Fold this protein.
Amino acid sequence: MAKITLSKLRHSYYPDPSSPEDYALKEIDLDWSDGGAYALLGPSGCGKSTLLNIISGLLTPSEGRILFDGEDVTGLPPNQRNIAQVFQFPVIYDTMSVFDNLAFPLRNRGVDEARVKARVTEIAEMLEVTDMLGTRAAHLSPDNKQKISMGRGLVRDDVNVVMFDEPLTVIDPHLKWKLRSKLKELHQKVRATMIYVTHDQTEALTFADQVVVMQEGEIVQIGTPVELFERPAHTFVGHFIGSPGMNVLPADIRNGAAYFEGHKLAVEGRIKLGDGLTQIGVRPEFVGLGDEGLPARVRKVADVGRHRVVDAVVGDTLVKAVSSGDVPGQGEDVHLAFAPEHTRVYRDGWLATERTSQ
Ligand SMILES: Nc1ncnc2c1ncn2[C@@H]1O[C@H](COP(=O)(O)OP(=O)(O)OP(=O)(O)O)[C@@H](O)[C@H]1O
């Protein structure tokens, strides 16, 4: 397995790019450690496939370099990069048995039969498909086919990286959670460098130790799932991750203090100086409902099982709050209290408060 470095990568599909909008990938600098579990997360069109294709060698970047363990592979074709890939749709041979499908990547590289048998048996146990080894792949259900496809990606232990490209797309929703946690478990056992590409926050946050969030060709934050939830570096991350996403509210900054709908708010720390559109970001989980705070009126309450989501209006602005206790009903007056350590200022989308050290 390898450490992967992306250095000053940029890519444009146009021959003569002139403005930042011409780039499907803006400048990307990234280090992925050997053996880590990473996710690339972002909405459709943000550049995930472009980046994946550059790493696998299907696409040559307009600028920058890709290094595996410090060795420049930018000019190498896919077959010389020693990568395993698992795609959206299962890639297996229907006429072969499950055993032969799993053995294929090893036999293809001339691994001896004793080692093939040992490794296939090991991977089959991890995937809990031992009882299917003799079955013809054509007879498998779609989710089992995709499991075997994943097994084929994991069976070689000499690859630099295993890349998963939206691997759960074809899986029934009620089976997704099973495969999601299976993959996490597999990473812990196999300890390969893995990159998981998805637009689904649950998949990314379940799988990865570190998530790279992309928007419009740019990395907006790299962090652990907890970091992305607790301290989004950009309003996009706050909005995209979480359900419901972070409240992003209009704000005025006067004399170093933040005001929302005319009320002064306590925020996590000092507000950085600068020009641009300022907004307040606070997650619904950190908005308390009670007798103190900003006066608001409840517009709607949604019961989503474990908790309730309350839509309240302050002045003209909608604020969401999540509560697991009793909540006021529709049309009632209430006060909202934003937890100061979780209330931040953003300027032109980017975090503009500094945390006061505790
Ligand atoms: N072959 C191409 N020629 C021109 N533009 C392209 C090409 N492939 C992708 N793009 C553009 O590059 C940008 C990034 O696309 P990309 O497919 O990498 O995003 P993505 O995040 O993988 O989206 P999806 O999940 O829909 O595949 C988009 O604006 C897309 O329209």
